[in-house]
Automatic annotation (TrEMBL):
Belongs to the protein kinase superfamily. Tyr protein kinase family. It comes from Parambassis ranga (Indian glassy fish). Residues 130-221 form the SH2 domain. This is Tyrosine-protein kinase. PROSITE patterns: PROTEIN_KINASE_ATP (PS00107), PROTEIN_KINASE_DOM (PS50011), PROTEIN_KINASE_TYR (PS00109), SH2 (PS50001), SH3 (PS50002).
Amino acid sequence: MESCCRSCMPCLNRLWNWVWPDFRYPNVPNNNNHVIANPAVVHSAEIRTVSGDIRVPSPKKRPVQLYAALFDFQARSDDELTVKEGDKLSVIEKRGEYVLAKKLTGSLESGLIPANYVALLQDEFAKHKWYYGNINRVKAEKLLLASQNKDGSFLVRISESHSDEYTISARSEGKVYHFRIQRSSIGAYFVSDKISFATLGELISYYQKNPRLGVPLEEPCAQQRELFDMEPWERPREEFRLHKKLGEGHFGEVWEALWTTENKKVAIKTLKQEDTKQDEFVKEVQALKSLHHPKLIQLLAMCSRGEPVYIVTELMSKGSLKSYLSSAEGQVLTSAHLIYMGSQIAEGMAYLEDRNIVHRDLAARNILVGDDLVCKVADFGLARIIKDSVYRASKSTKIPVRWTAPEAAIYQHFSVKSDVWSFGVLLYEMMSRGKMPYEGKSNKEVLDLLSSGFRLPCPTRCPQNIYRIMMDCWAAEPSKRPSFHALHSQLDTIYARIYFKTIEV
């Protein structure tokens, strides 16, 4: 070792194996369906299982989060960036007490700004009348061609081929035209690459005032519930045939079923009618149906008349993350695979965070796994349609104490930040390959331990930087816990470094 330089390959390999002892890069297929190894990796190996090789894709290039300057800041050196209050920025990375940011308008300069001078901007377009979310091209055309609309009517919807892009659908001369809204590498929105906008709202406002698309954008589409929903949300119970019980949770059983009229397999969560808040049930589930994100389980239908209540969702091939982790396939997952899965969960939770929706029961049992390690958050918002007496009963085991933040378990102060605490416990479940948190302790003992400052120990084979993220999630003061956007970004960054086999020395 004394004669080696810091940059020689044997030393770097030894350091790599110390930092990531269980990582083996999974080969990925190219476009010709031949397996190729990452050229940056010297030794690569597939994980072979009975069901086939487990592979994870290369890190995707996702748009940078949009920030705004809170105050004026005058650069004091060439490394710093002068900004005005309200300037739209993309933050490239954090550097101590500063962030490296790039302007999204004007000069497009980049430089350092004090971190407390910028704030994350949430997407506000969901509040606009023209935003219709996750409807497809056929639905958009049917809506716009309805008699209540006229030429100049338009709507914006999520792109069918790219979940982080959008489409403008507009009516002109009795026809509907569609225009794709793309995202640049710094997160700006554009239809034509000659002009881009920091927000979706700014883009729509511009084209309303400047009809350069060739069709006018005058009035948002008149929303008609009958056409917008296309089919009734409430479905007859007779349409569903229960096949196989998949599991049981705090609030009911989960079954694999056949939706006979649609001829497709679905998952059904059953609930006792007496446990639901009847006056809020339909309204709440309708609200949940409007949530669309690739990392959330899609709600398809419900049967609220009679016993038991059915909540019908898409079916995921591998079942719950809890059961998957304990399976033979789950036990051979490496840290790389688990971090990739954790990043997806954080992405889905960030979407809920933006909409102030609190999950209240985030755990491995409520994450569903599909092919290619796709993970989706399930049961979001379900706790809100369950009677409080069922959820909060102090002598009941209904409340998931081991996953619940102290302020929520003791005082029922549920928030996005209590969900962040639960996410830390979920990471523990994943990195320990399915171990029960606080194994052998009663709920009371768990609360007593947490009150004394105790936290779950670092699981065997868990990288230290992932354990640090867990500890951040378990900050005693809720405001000091990270956001889900920050968690998603951190996990994405770590995963990319593993994938391309680059480490910070």
